[in-house]
Protein: homogentisate 1,2-dioxygenase
Organism: Trichoderma harzianum CBS 226.95
Amino acid sequence: MPVTKFQVAEKYDYLHGFGSYHESEAVKGALPVGATSPQKPAYGLYAEKFSGTAFTAPRGENLQSWLYRILPSAAHKPFEPIKRLGNTSFSQPLHHIPNQLRWDPFNTNVNADWTDSLHLVCSAGNPCMKQGLGILIYAAGKSMETNEAFSSADGDFLIVPQQGVLDIQTELGRLLVRPREICVIPRGTRYRVSLPGGSVRGYILELYQGHFQLPELGPIGSQGLANSRDFQIPVADYTADTETEWHHITKFNGEFFTAKHNHTPFDVVAWHGTYYPYKYDLGRYNTIGTVSYDHPDPSIFTVLTAPSDHQGTAVADFVIFPPRWLVAEDTFRPPEFHRNTMSEFMGLIDGIYDGKERGFSPAGASLHNIMSGHGPDAEVHEKASNEDLKPVKVGDGSMAFMFESCFMMGVTDWGLHECKKVQPDYSDNAWGALKPSFDLAVDRKTE
Ligand SMILES: [Fe+2]
């Protein structure tokens, strides 16, 4: 299956290519040629720089775009603090717990829009210091108001829809994002989310530090995993509204503020650069695995990675477990038992994950924090230890994913208590039935 067969048809045009320098104009001639900031930009537009890295970041990491818009984003009233329905979780204390945690499917609040429905489940680090990440659940029932926009100054949002279609209008253009697609909305990008098909639910990794990259391919070669050309970037699309009062809500160090504009923030007529939103169809992932014995580490399933300052160690990896063939001989095929120095937050978009046949449901989640032992449940272990090792396709109709981080995750009060979804008996249910099968009568080796 080279691409996902979506139930809702695509309706927007896109540019293609992860990390490429792109340009787009909704009006011919709106993009200046050569210079970026002419004395008088075409059509009376304002030129505005939008940076995602320091100006002096190395060329390979440098993310900057130039926007040509009807009014600059500076033209607004002062921001004022607001308290929204659900988002107090962003300022809650964190609980660091060595136990395995698993959540039943999170509830959708039909009265909440995108902004109201955001809840922080767990996090590490601090947006102020641009360190770490947050893991959020969204579960909304209605579109944002027609004159409302949202942005986060705290980090990049990697959005993983589990249910429902997101129609996202951003400053740089529009994206339609459906379950089995993901999108990344960079820090500071203003956007509005409408729900053409009703309720939506999904997961977000907010990256406080750096930006996502494609993983290195090493001996795999020049193509494989998520291919650059499959990432889709919106084309410039603007509205010309300088009459309506708009509200811009921003998340700033976990607090929410709002400011009034007397014009739409979606007035970018043309843009060029390297700092932009993008989306990706997980069905296009080129999955790689063993064709002999043992299975490689799950890093082989990395779609996007956000590296730390230490080479090969990620602040966050986004990893998927797509449908794939298992052919390994004399091999225990499900994910093995393990304890890792990385913490692992897993979610399930649909279907059944091959390592956990019961209790891990679509829209649910699990967190196996640093050095928290886990692996296949007793039932899966028994079955996999005795099955006939013919080639078999696993994960058909399923898509599980993992947010993996080098940091220890702390869980908010919302994640631990208020959501009321933590499974109290997860550990017992998963591994309580494991029995030793070691032959106690075996002779100890003596020299
Ligand atoms: Fe794991």
